């Protein structure tokens, strides 16, 4: 992945924009001309690029809110990727992210013809360019309080970009981390180091790889509504190696019954990938590819922790199946909650609890219950029941809670309200973490990490599954429905 140009622009609504920083890469521009062929469009000078961008973003002409080609119904823009009309055609793709009074802009290299324009999902450099802009945004926003701070940050960009994006090829998006590492200076170096990498690690050699999966779930227990669940994974790494340019290969593996990884996005430092890794998509419903690994990621690591890749996985079942019923009888609420841990899931939690909130009803004055397992805490003023399940489900893998709740008068100052949870619309929300386990089965170990180094580093690997927005809705009332769209 490479970028043709990078800009930091300041603006005010309807005012004149100013290019605070820009960097172009002539070698990447030559590659773009070769790849794009007849569809190649030159990046104009800043005095032409700036007004074209601000017009496209709607940041000029405050008295002219509607521009035909930009705002008509024939064009629906759902991303931050734009086509800028310049003298010889449309410059595309231009990534632009407005934030506060600044606009962060980047033009990634497209390694193919752009006639016709290829789908965004087929251009790997798009996601990597977004990651790099996000890192630049984080650096500019950190510790910035006034114009002086902003000027100081901008003044540091030339040196940092030499290291983070040498010759237009991003290797590290953590600019703040690079700055912190450079504060001590490069020191006395035995190995010859590239000019763009001004510091290196000194100490015990070790490589840490952590796989963290988060599972989101919406369960309804209704025939006409389909339950939905999603698994999102992040692989983070930290390579403490003394070499100036260490080379590392991390392989992600799946067991025989594992769920293939999809929608894989990688860090800019990854050198190359098997095409099968990038083609599997959960968005394209006609995609029946099922590459089951191993997924190999060769890279030259940044100095600090970084996200090696992100992925999704379509697992067949959620880890915990739930059933929740809430019914109102006179002034009482009767609740029933059943939870079952799927037999394929590891029965070993760091923590596991279910929270049952009651919105718009007042504080809890009386509660009678029957509990098959765990402990129950009643937060009366907050109107919440906390069911502490603990670190394991029983051998049956099934637990239940039944009870009757009576509420007092409503206090708007203390009792939380919710515009969705009105009437009997209610939910149970699960919080849990399972160490040394992933729902997709994805894992890596010391035999799956190759380090081309003079010293043999210690390999430390870990994995975890964490709940994220894990809801079980009352099956006796209406509930907000989540559905999967076949479109981006």
UniProtKB/TrEMBL annotation:
Superkingdom, taxonomy of origin: Eukaryota
GO CC terms, sorted: AP-type membrane coat adaptor complex; cytosol; late endosome membrane; lysosomal membrane
Keywords: Cytoplasm, Endosome, Lysosome, Membrane, Protein transport, Transport
Pfam family, one: Adap_comp_sub
Record-level GO BP terms: endosomal transport; protein transport
CDD domains to which the protein is assigned, alphabetical: AP_MuD_MHD (cd09256)
Keyword Phosphoprotein on entry: no
Main location: cytoplasm
Matches recorded under PROSITE patterns: MHD
Span of domain MHD: 204-474
Subcellular location: Cytoplasm, Cytosol; Late endosome membrane; Lysosome membrane
Membrane topology designation: Peripheral membrane protein
Signal peptide limits: none
Subunit description: Probably part of the adaptor protein complex 5 (AP-5) a tetramer composed of AP5B1, AP5M1, AP5S1 and AP5Z1.
Family under the similarity heading: Belongs to the adaptor complexes medium subunit family.
Name the record gives this protein: AP-5 complex subunit mu-1
Protein's organism: Microcaecilia unicolor
Gene this chain is encoded by: AP5M1
């Amino acid at each position: 992945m490479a970028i043709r140009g990078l800009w930091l622009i300041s603006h005010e609504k309807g005012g004149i924009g100013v290019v605070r920083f820009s960097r172009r890469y002539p070698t990447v521009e030559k590659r773009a001309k070769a790849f794009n062929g007849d569809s190649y469009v030159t990046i104009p000078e800043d005095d032409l690029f700036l007004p074209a961008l601000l017009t496209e973003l709607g940041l000029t002409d405050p008295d002219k809110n509607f521009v035909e080609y930009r705002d008509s119904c024939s064009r629906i823009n759902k991303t931050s990727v734009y086509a800028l009309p310049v003298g010889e055609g449309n410059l595309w793709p231009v990534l632009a992210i407005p934030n506060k009074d600044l606009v962060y802009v980047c033009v990634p290299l497209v390694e193919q013809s752009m006639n016709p324009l290829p789908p965004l999902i087929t251009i790997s450099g798009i996601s990597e360019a977004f990651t790099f802009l996000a890192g630049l945004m984080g650096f500019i926003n950190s510790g910035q309080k006034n114009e002086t701070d902003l000027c100081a940050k901008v003044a540091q960009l030339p040196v940092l970009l030499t290291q983070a994006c040498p010759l237009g090829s991003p290797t590290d998006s953590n600019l703040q981390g690079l700055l912190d590492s450079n504060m001590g200076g490069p020191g006395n170096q035995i190995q010859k180091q590239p000019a763009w990498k001004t510091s290196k690690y000194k100490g015990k050699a070790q490589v840490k790889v952590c796989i963290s999966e988060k599972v989101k779930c919406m369960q309804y227990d209704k025939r006409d509504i389909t339950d939905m669940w999603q698994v999102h994974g992040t692989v983070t790494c930290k390579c403490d190696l003394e070499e100036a340019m260490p080379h590392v290969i991390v392989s992600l593996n799946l067991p025989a019954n594992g769920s293939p990884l999809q929608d894989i996005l990688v860090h800019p430092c990854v050198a190359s990938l098997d095409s099968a890794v990038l083609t599997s998509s959960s968005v394209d419903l006609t995609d029946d590819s099922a590459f089951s690994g191993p997924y190999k990621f060769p890279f030259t690591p940044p100095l600090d922790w970084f996200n090696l890749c992100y992925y999704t996985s379509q697992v067949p079942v959620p880890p915990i199946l739930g059933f929740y019923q809430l019914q109102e009888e006179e002034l009482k609420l009767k609740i029933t909650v059943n939870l079952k841990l799927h037999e394929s899931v590891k029965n070993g939690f760091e923590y596991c609890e279910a929270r049952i909130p009651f919105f718009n009803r007042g504080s809890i004055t009386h509660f009678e219950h029957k509990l098959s397992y765990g402990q129950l805490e009643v937060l009366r003023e907050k109107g919440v029941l906390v069911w502490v399940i603990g670190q394991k489900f029983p051998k049956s893998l099934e637990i239940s809670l039944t009870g009757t709740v009576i509420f007092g008068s409503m206090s708007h100052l203390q009792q939380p309200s919710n515009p969705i949870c009105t009437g009997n619309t209610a939910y149970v929300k699960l919080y849990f973490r399972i160490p040394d386990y992933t729902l997709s089965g994805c894992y890596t170990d010391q035999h799956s990490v190759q380090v081309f180094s003079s010293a043999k580093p210690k390999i430390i690997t870990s994995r975890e599954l964490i709940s994220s927005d894990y809801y079980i809705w009352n099956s006796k009332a209406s509930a907000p429905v989540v559905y999967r769209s076949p479109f981006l």
